[in-house]
């Protein structure tokens, strides 16, 4: 039993709880998730089963999409409406659409943000959120992230909220984005709602609820290689299948002439339609090098 499950995590469930649910439903020990979702958030959570857990790392660099709600008039230490209020204001006017679009435009592209202290980021090997809860002061380093698209969906003047969609790179914290965009409007802001709508090839439209997963069981599994189709495909000579599965490199001096890249290129390696695993092309030595072999040697 192996593959990925496109799971629709409900609010209130941790990503760890979701893994436990899949273990119980499928009676499979080897289960892991890609891209942690905060307990209060909902949406797409890719879950790997069996040998597919070895492929989780290849989902780290895929883009993600969210629908978020920003509450204006309040800023918290956690970046969402569950945290301690640090600043509040009722003496402000809701920004008009032109001002919102200007702020959204200024936050599109490469930006620098500081993730919330209440996050799973590791500080000296420990999660920042655990340290904060123990009263330890933490300093989270800033990071560069990419915001590919920001779009206003709705504005509620009475509730003081902005609903928007965002497409972004890995490592982007929407809580920090809401806080920073509020500051750009000179209004305290916090995230009041979040749903992740996609992770790479995993889409909210196809995600399974808890009940659907319990009904489908193992038929909910998606082919592992299809879920990492953002990695280029390479067809290996069948005569070199056993060598690849034994961790041996294969010379291919002509491959680099067909693809443009520098140094190394990650590849999904197949032989006669069978998915063997992940390898890379070493441009210097002009060889296909195995990285993770999933196929059984025969």
- Tell me, what's the shape? globular
The residue-averaged pLDDT reads 91
For this structure, what is the CATH homologous superfamily of the largest domain?
Pseudouridine synthase
Any guess at the CATH architecture of the largest domain? 2-Layer Sandwich
What would the CATH topology of the largest domain be? Pseudouridine synthase
How much strand?
35-45%
User: How many domains, in number, for the residues?
Assistant: 3
Q: Compute the CA-based radius of gyration.
A: 22 Å
Q: Give the CATH class of the largest domain.
A: Alpha Beta
Q: Which stretches of 5+ consecutive residues score pLDDT under 50?
A: none
Topology:
Elements: E1 3-9, H1 15-26, E2 31-33, E3 42-49, E4 64-72, E5 74-76, E6 85-88, H2 97-106, E7 109-113, E8 122-123, E9 126-127, H3 128-133, E10 143-156, E11 161-168, H4 174-184, E12 189-199, E13 202-203, H5 210-216, E14 233-235, H6 241-245, E15 250-251, E16 264-271, E17 274-282, E18 287-293
What do these coordinates show?
This protein has helices at 15-26, 97-106, 128-133, 174-184, 210-216, 241-245; strands at residues 3-9, 31-33, 42-49, 64-72, 74-76, 85-88, 109-113, 122-123, 126-127, 143-156, 161-168, 189-199, 202-203, 233-235, 250-251, 264-271, 274-282, 287-293. The protein is an alpha+beta fold and 298 residues long. It has three domains: 3-62 and 200-224, Pseudouridine synthase (2-Layer Sandwich), CATH 3.30.2350.10; 64-194, Pseudouridine synthase; 231-293, Archaeosine Trna-guanine Transglycosylase, Chain: A, domain 4. Strands 1, 2, 3, 4, 7, 10, 11, 12 and 13 form a nine-stranded mixed sheet that branches. The protein has a five-stranded mixed sheet with strand order 14-16-17-18-15. A hairpin with a 2-residue loop joins strand 12 and strand 13 (202-203). The protein is globular, with a radius of gyration of 22 Å. The two termini are 19 Å apart. 34% of the residues are buried. The model has no long low-confidence stretch (mean pLDDT 91).
């Amino acid at each position: 039993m192996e593959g990925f499950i496109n799971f629709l995590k409900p609010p209130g469930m941790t990503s760890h709880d979701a893994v436990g649910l899949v273990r119980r439903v499928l009676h499979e020990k080897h289960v892991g998730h890609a891209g942690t979702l905060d307990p209060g958030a909902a949406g797409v959570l890719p879950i790997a089963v069996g040998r597919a857990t070895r492929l989780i790392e290849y989902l780290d660099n895929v883009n993600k999409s969210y629908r978020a709600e920003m509450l204006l008039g309040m800023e918290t230490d956690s970046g969402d409406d569950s945290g301690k209020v640090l600043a509040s204001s009722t003496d402000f006017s809701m920004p008009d659409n032109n001002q919102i679009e200007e702020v959204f435009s200024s936050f599109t592209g490469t930006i620098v943000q500081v993730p919330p202290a209440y996050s799973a980021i590791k500080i000296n090997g420990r999660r920042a959120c655990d340290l904060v809860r123990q009263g330890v002061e933490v300093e989270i380093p800033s990071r560069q992230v990419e915001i590919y698209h920001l779009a206003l969906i709705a504005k509620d003047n009475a509730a003081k909220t902005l609903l928007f969609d965002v497409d972004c790179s890995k490592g982007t914290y929407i809580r920090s984005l809401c806080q920073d965009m509020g500051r750009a409007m000179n209004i305290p802001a916090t995230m009041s709602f979040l749903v992740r709508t996609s992770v790479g090839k995993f889409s909210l439209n196809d995600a399974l609820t808890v009940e659907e997963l319990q009904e489908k069981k193992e038929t909910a599994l998606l082919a592992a290689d299809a879920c990492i189709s953002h990695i280029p495909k390479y067809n290996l000579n069948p005569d070199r299948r056993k060598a690849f599965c034994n961790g041996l490199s294969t010379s291919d001096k002509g491959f680099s002439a067909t693809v443009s890249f520098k140094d190394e290129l990650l590849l999904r390696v197949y032989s006669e339609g069978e998915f063997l695993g992940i390898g890379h092309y070493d441009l210097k030595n002009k060889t296909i090098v195995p990285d993770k072999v999933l196929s059984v040697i025969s």
